[in-house]
Amino acid sequence: MKRSFWLVLVFIVALALPSVIGEFWVHVAIEILILGLFAVSFNMLFGYMGQLSFGHAAYFGVGAYATGLLLLKTPLPLPVCFFISMAAAGLAALVFGYFCVRLTGIYFAILTMAFGQLIYYIIFQWYAFTGGDNGLQGIVPPGWLLNVRHYYYFTLFIVIGALVVMWLISASPFGHTMRAIRDNAERTRFIGINVRRYMLINFVIAGMFAGLAGGLLGPFNRSIAPDLCNWQQSGIPVFMTVIGGPLAFFGPMVGAVIYTLLFALITGFTEYWPLTIGLVIILVVLYLPGGVLGLVQKKWIPLHSKKLTPGPNGGAGEEI
Questions:
Q1: pTM higher than 0.85
Q2: Mean pLDDT, the chain, whole residue set
Q3: SS3 annotation, the chain
Q4: Number of structural domains found in the chain
Q5: Is 314 within a domain?
Q6: Which domain holds residue 280?
Q7: Which terminal residue of the chain, N or C, has fewer Cβ atoms less than 10 Å from its own Cβ?
Q8: Pairing of strands 136-137, 223-224
Q9: Domain contains 11
């Protein structure tokens, strides 16, 4: 069946979900949406640019703190706070990305982690402004969003809007240029494209949408802490992307569903969550190198989509 059918079906299910599940699972669904957006923004670097970032949580945290501080200290409406959070995260990504895009591979990954830890320690130590290791407490959304189901629908439509924008970017000439850089940066440079400039723009875009995801988290949790910027937090979108599939646009969202549901279920029975997720990642890497959505594309989609024209990567990797 066509991709549009499944997207409409998922949208209908998402709309009906709060009516058929309890409040706890509505909270879990909101986490899936927020972390899924975070993971998709990370995949703009990993899946579309071919560079692994271990510091993406820095922009997630900058967005969360920007929204939290604005809600606590100003009368600005929440949507305006989100735009400012995206701008703040984008500015941080612009400054750090200027240096990161000069490197590739493991050096890129280490430098992103170093800058991420720099943000973490600034937030951790700046008690007068960020609250230090106490974080920010009492981040209350507007009254019409206090109901968890209202916040779910609010988050759902923002995340859908963000995904549509990122999808359009990925399907644009800019997105195809990023794929070319991912596949062969030297050849792309030889045809006259400024590779560093494109990588920096993509870095900023990824940081801005990570900031939006962070902005959604603060009012939802009513508080934020410096650990949002720590390197362990940067591992979460990596896990989600690997589980769902980095070569499919919606792969990280699928990974977010699996990761968050597993976390909610496993931690209810045992404290060995790190062992569990470690085993899951090992199994995915060994037996599902393309992730869950990659398996679906390989085994199921070709049976129903033989008339599809192969994409620039020679397969259906960008179709879902």
A1: yes
A2: 89
A3: CCHHHHHHHHHHHHHHHHHHCCHHHHHHHHHHHHHHHHHHHHHHHHHHHCCCCCCCHHHHHHHHHHHHHHHHHCCCCHHHHHHHHHHHHHHHHHHHHHHHCCCCHHHHHHHHHHHHHHHHHHHHHCHHHHCHHHCEECCCCCHHHCCHHHHHHHHHHHHHHHHHHHHHHHHCHHHHHHHHHHHCHHHHHHCCCCHHHHHHHHHHHHHHHHHHHHHHHHHHHCEECHHHHCHHHHHHHHHHHHHHCCCCCCHHHHHHHHHHHHHHHHCCCCCCHHHHHHHHHHHHHHHCCCHHHHHHHHHCHHHHCCCCCCCCCCCCCCCC
A4: 1
A5: no
A6: 6-304
A7: N
A8: antiparallel
A9: yes
> What is the tens place of the pLDDT at every residue in 123-174?
999 988 988 888 899 898 988 899 999 999 999 999 999 999 999 999 999 9
CATH number where 81 lies: 1.10.3470
Q: 127 in a domain, yes or no?
A: yes
Burial readout 131-160 (b: 16 or more C-beta within 10 A, e: otherwise): beeebbeebebeeebeeeeebbbbbbebbe
Q: Is residue 63 part of a domain?
A: yes
